[in-house]
């Protein structure tokens, strides 16, 4: 018989199994494949081949990750940190964010208007701006915890409950 033992898979087989479910960054794949006791050289060779074939791409991963986190209502600071933790280089993060901004300005859906997103998230969570400083601080902490910067938080606190029909 030609049966393989559970630990006899190649780095490529394991990587493809992972990539079949979702996009992974190269650093995530290195970590996962190392945990399966594959050699460092074999992993590097495998991931180079997968990238060359277009089966693994840090850029595609970063774009997908950014879109999914925007849909979850997360702000730019939190998303940047999460991408960095997943081994995405600073320059690629900058590029992906710039593309998202360009998509928004081009009128396409899915663009990143962080100020509008902060307003939507805040209005969804709270019925109003809060009557006391303590309530307003709670709303500020909520948005800051979601990864929005100071300007976005201030804007959202001022505009989250505006009547959309009165805006141009």
From TrEMBL:
Coiled coil: none annotated. InterPro entries: RecX_HTH_1st, RecX_HTH_2nd, RecX_HTH_3rd, Regulatory_RecX, WH-like_DNA-bd_sf. It comes from Halomonas tibetensis. Modulates RecA activity. The lineage of its organism: Bacteria, Pseudomonadati, Pseudomonadota, Gammaproteobacteria, Oceanospirillales. It is found in: Cytoplasm. Pfam families: RecX_HTH1 (PF21982), RecX_HTH2 (PF02631), RecX_HTH3 (PF21981). Residues 57-95 form the RecX second three-helical domain. Gene3D superfamilies: Winged helix-like DNA-binding domain superfamily/Winged helix DNA-binding domain. This is Regulatory protein RecX.
């Amino acid at each position: 018989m030609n049966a393989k033992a559970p630990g006899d898979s190649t780095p490529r087989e394991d990587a493809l199994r992972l990539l079949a479910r979702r996009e992974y960054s190269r650093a995530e794949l290195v970590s996962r494949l190392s945990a399966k006791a594959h050699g460092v050289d074999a992993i590097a060779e495998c991931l180079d081949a997968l990238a060359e074939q277009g089966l693994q791409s840090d850029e595609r991963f970063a774009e997908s990750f950014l879109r999914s986190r925007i849909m979850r209502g997360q702000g730019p600071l939190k998303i940047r940190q999460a991408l960095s933790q997943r081994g995405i280089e600073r320059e690629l993060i900058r590029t992906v964010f710039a593309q998202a901004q360009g998509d928004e300005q081009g009128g396409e859906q899915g663009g990143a208007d962080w100020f509008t997103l902060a307003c939507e998230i805040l209005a969804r969570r709270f019925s109003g701006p809060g009557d006391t400083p303590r309530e307003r601080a709670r709303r500020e902490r909520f948005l800051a915890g979601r990864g929005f910067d100071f300007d976005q938080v201030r804007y959202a606190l001022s505009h989250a409950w505006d009547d959309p029909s009165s805006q141009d």
